[in-house]
Design a protein that fits this description.
The chain has 272 residues and is α/β, with parallel strands linked by helices. The protein is built from ten helices and six strands. It has one domain: NAD(P)-binding Rossmann-like Domain (Rossmann fold). Helices cover 44% and strands 14% of the residues. It has a six-stranded parallel beta sheet, sandwiched between helices. The longest helix is centred in the middle third of the chain and has 25 residues. It is globular, with a radius of gyration of 18 Å. The chain starts with 9 loop residues before the first strand and ends in a 7-residue tail after the last helix.
Length: 272
């Protein structure tokens, strides 16, 4: 049931690939909560995904943008202001890709050119995006920016590879921009560290089923579904969280605070 939390607000949602994507669910819920939205993704991702279907269902314009291209990002923000008739009140960064992970390169045998691409696509794009927004003055005072992260920024998860480094950089960028944009325009910037989620990107990680199952048994509430992550993002876009900024917020069913659970212990306990 919608509550009108974003009534009259405008926003940009990046990274919606298909209906498994968290960004897709955020866009649907934001529209249901009364927001006007611009959808954006890289041209190559748009060819792979189904963003046109989403755009039609929520009546949202699409502005393609390569998040590693500064000119594209400036056009995204100026174009969004023109399309929606005013500055943005919220932005979702849901962008991440590692050529090393995709091609099965382990952390101790990285291709460094691909490593640079991982950092550029998955983290520097967040800095580029906020710099473009700042230069074009495209986000309203007291606006909200959210980027999606993962706990591999703090802990080692073999198989997540150089994406862990990218997520650590992403969270640092969020804190730094949160300070600068907070001081200048009261704009808040947060990252959400989500449970392993059955998305197209997530399931492409080697051993993802193990990640998912382990987190499920380590989390008192179980893994947080994508739909609930969308709800959390909406709350961060809303006026109910006006003084939450520069935070990395765990949305993971308690995984990040759990040392051990009986379910996991049982796998290592010899019956008496």
């Amino acid at each position: 049931m919608a509550h009108g939390l974003l009534k009259g607000k405008r926003g940009i949602i990046t990274g919606a690939l298909n209906d498994q994507s968290i960004a897709w669910k955020v866009a649907e819920l934001a529209a249901a909560e009364g927001a006007q939205i611009v959808l954006s993704n890289a041209p190559v991702a748009m060819r792979m995904g189904e963003i046109n279907k989403l755009a039609e269902s929520i009546k949202a314009p699409i502005i393609p943008a390569d998040a590693t291209n500064d000119a594209d990002l400036e056009k995204l923000f100026t174009g969004s202001v023109e399309q929606l008739g005013g500055k943005m009140d919220f932005v979702l960064h849901s962008i991440g890709m590692s050529p090393n992970v995709r091609k099965g390169k382990t952390y101790d045998d990285l291709n460094y050119e691909w490593y640079k691409q991982t950092l550029d696509i998955s983290a520097m794009s967040f800095h580029r995006m906020l710099q473009a927004a700042s230069k074009t003055d495209a986000i309203s005072d007291w606006g909200s920016v959210v980027a999606l992260s993962y706990i591999a920024a703090q802990r080692v998860f073999p198989g997540y590879g150089d994406m862990a480094d990218a997520k650590a950089l992403l969270e640092s960028i969020g804190r730094s921009w949160g300070y600068y944009l907070g001081m200048s325009k009261k704009i808040r910037v947060n990252t959400v560290s989500q449970s392993p989620t059955m998305t197209t990107a997530g399931s492409g990680i080697k051993g993802f089923g193990g990640f998912y199952g382990f987190a499920q048994e380590m989390s008192p509430l179980g893994n947080a579904p994508a739909e609930n992550c969308a709800e959390y993002c909406i709350s961060l876009f809303s006026d109910l969280t006006r003084y939450v900024t520069m935070q990395n917020l765990f949305h993971d069913g308690g995984f990040s605070s759990s040392g051990v659970t009986p379910q996991v212990m049982a796998k290592f306990t010899t019956p008496e």
